[in-house]
Design goal:
Blueprint: E1 2-5, H1 6-11, H2 13-23, E2 25-30, E3 33-39, H3 46-72, H4 79-96
Parallel strand pairs: 1-2
Antiparallel strand pairs: 2-3
């Protein structure tokens, strides 16, 4: 995978599009740090490509939640403990709203 910076895209878009066609995907950088992925697609493949990207983002988010749960020990809670935490949070919210 190759990298292209924002300035290069702005100044020479034709060159970047040609590289994208050759490479299939490029990482777009800003201030030397990756912030977007340019990837080729087709009208018939667009939905499938978007679904694959969304699935990858979901997997990354789920892994982060699982890491956080392991780090904080909440992955060890029983269903009864989880239900009690939910009840407490709802009760606090209910009282804070003045209901």
């Amino acid at each position: 995978m190759d990298f292209v910076n924002v300035r290069e895209l702005r100044v020479q878009p034709g060159v970047v599009w040609k590289r994208l066609a050759e490479e299939g995907e490029l990482v777009l950088t800003r201030n030397g740090k990756p912030f977007a992925i340019l990837t080729g697609t087709t009208p018939t493949g667009l939905e499938q490509d978007l679904n694959a990207l969304r699935a990858a983002r979901f997997g990354r988010a789920l892994a982060a939640v699982r890491r956080n749960a392991a780090d904080t020990g909440t992955d060890e809670l029983s269903m009864e403990e989880i239900d009690a935490l939910i009840r407490d949070a709802r009760s606090e919210r209910h009282h804070a709203a003045g209901d």
